[in-house]
Target: Diguanylate cyclase (GGDEF)-like protein/PAS domain S-box-containing protein
Amino acid sequence: KVKGRYFMTCGEYDETMHQRLIDEQGFINDMNKALTNREFLFYLQPKYELSTSRIIGAEALVRWLHPQKGFIEPNRFIPIFEENGFIFSLDKYIWEEVCKLLRRWLDEGRPIHPISVNISRVDLYSDELVGFLDELIKKYNIPARLLELELTESAYFNNPEQIVDITQKLQKMGFIILMDDFGSGYSSLNMLKDVNVNVLKVDLKFLQNTSQNNRSGRILNAVVYMAKCLELPIIIEGVETLQQSEFLQSIGCSWVQGYYYSRPIPVKDYEKLIDQMEYLPSAAELCPCTLP
Ligand code: C2E
Ligand code: MG
Ligand code: MG
Ligand code: MG
Model:
């Protein structure tokens, strides 16, 4: 296997890389057992309508509760699982857990809104992907639009035809496709031309050090305007401060997600949060035809 990091010069080999090499073997040894033992779980990070601060949905973000190593963040193990092919197994598990939760909320008659899950660029190589998602929503009897799918923009770079094809198939089945990490790659505009996504999620790096007049602020402003021209809803990720939130409001951004509003939180805490909200559209209002 050719792995980029083996070709790095000494100067690039830093502590992070060192830690990664140590992590890697341990994670690979433990991953299958961890899946069987249900050590993976997901947190939910709410997404908000900026003008009303109403929750419009949430993103499911995986965590690993390792019996010895404790709580492990995805950036440490996802890249490793993407390299060794385990990611698809993990993702299928998380998607199913999310469907179980949506099913429970529907059964309990809770106000319900979509939860988005992440799809690794590696998952797109599997012939099973579309069929698996189709069977999953049938198994739990969930309207496709409640399980939103986040595809990372970097998937497009290596695999433009595949991503166009898969996106079309999933949309025909009723899934909403969000383009995650928009603007982080090398071919964002090409991607936008070819792939007919439903929502843009702008990479959180875009928000760092933005203000009305600086360069990143103006770029963000232009991206929000571009999304308007394309009639594409847009979510800005990584909102950490009141200033950022005000700036986004001033440029007419509609949806946000970030630590300023809420960190990713356990499902129980998320349920408390939505129970406190004064108004949320009910499940029936959202999908009158498809719900049982
Ligand atoms: P992502 O999908 O772009 O998710 C956003 C990441 O930004 C999350 O990190 C979230 O906790 C973090 N974030 C949210 N708001 C803020 C903020 O205001 N400031 C800062 N600095 N960060 C913020 P997390 O949970 O550590 O996940 C990292 C990445 O791991 C995700 O990026 C996604 O690419 C991947 N990932 C997470 N869960 C899954 C999963 O179930 N499957 C796959 N394939 N990838 C996943
Ligand atoms: Mg995401
Ligand atoms: Mg993102
Ligand atoms: Mg990301």
Remarks:
- The longest strand covers residues 54-66.
- The two ends are 49 Å apart (CA to CA).
- Residues 180-181, 201, 237 surround magnesium ion (ligand 3) (CB under 6 Å).
